[in-house]
């Protein structure tokens, strides 16, 4: 039985790696720029997998939905726990000259633009908590893509309390240079 669980975990991990992988060296606006799952919060990962299963999240071109639909809730929980424990050291590659400005926005927000401090949801070290994802060590191109897409995917006027909708409202108020600064800062965190 333990061998079967190990095989299922390995197979499911492989599926997730393909599902969230970066196709080549994706540009900063390339939709194929996938997230880095190492060190991610289990609740966030389970929620994302559930969103794929429930078709609330677009899998893009690289995911065969039949593979995700066959993953049980127990296996999704095991996968989420597995990724939480993987070393999440940063890869680098972000424009380091933007990190200081990103740190200021991350820690203090921009009150005049109605942008709260990122620490309120993602924590002082950007490690996330509960349904709020870990940002520390996340790939810069992925962060830029996601920040740019929040408004179009979720809509600024959405009334839901889902963290994604809250993030859409915040991203709506960020300009491109502020997004780049935040992405540069958190991508270099351990």
Summary?
This protein has 190 residues and is an all-alpha fold.
What can you see in these coordinates?
The chain has helices at residues 2-20, 42-53, 65-69, 73-84, 99-108, 119-122, 140-154, 163-172, 176-187. With 190 residues, it is an all-alpha fold. The protein has two domains: 2-84, Cytochrome c-like domain (Cytochrome Bc1 Complex, Chain D, domain 2); 96-187, Orthogonal Bundle (Cytochrome Bc1 Complex, Chain D, domain 2). The longest helix is centred in the first third of the chain and has 19 residues, at 2-20. The protein is globular.
Describe the protein's topology.
Blueprint: H1 2-20, H2 42-53, H3 65-69, H4 73-84, H5 99-108, H6 119-122, H7 140-154, H8 163-172, H9 176-187
Q: Could you tell me the radius of gyration in angstroms?
A: 17 Å
CATH architecture of the largest domain: Orthogonal Bundle
Look at the helices and sheets and give the structural class: mainly alpha
Helix content bin: 40-55%
Q: What count of domains describes the coordinates?
A: 2
What characteristic shape results from the CA principal axes?
A: globular
Could you tell me the mean pLDDT? 77
The CA-CA distance between the termini, in Å, is 36 Å
CATH class of the largest domain: Mainly Alpha
Largest sheet: none
β-strand percent reads under 5%
Q: Unreliable runs, pLDDT <50, ≥5 residues?
A: 18-32
CATH superfamily of the largest domain: Cytochrome c-like domain
Would you list the SSEs in sequence order as H and E? HHHHHHHHH
Instruction: Give the tally of β-strands.
Output: 0
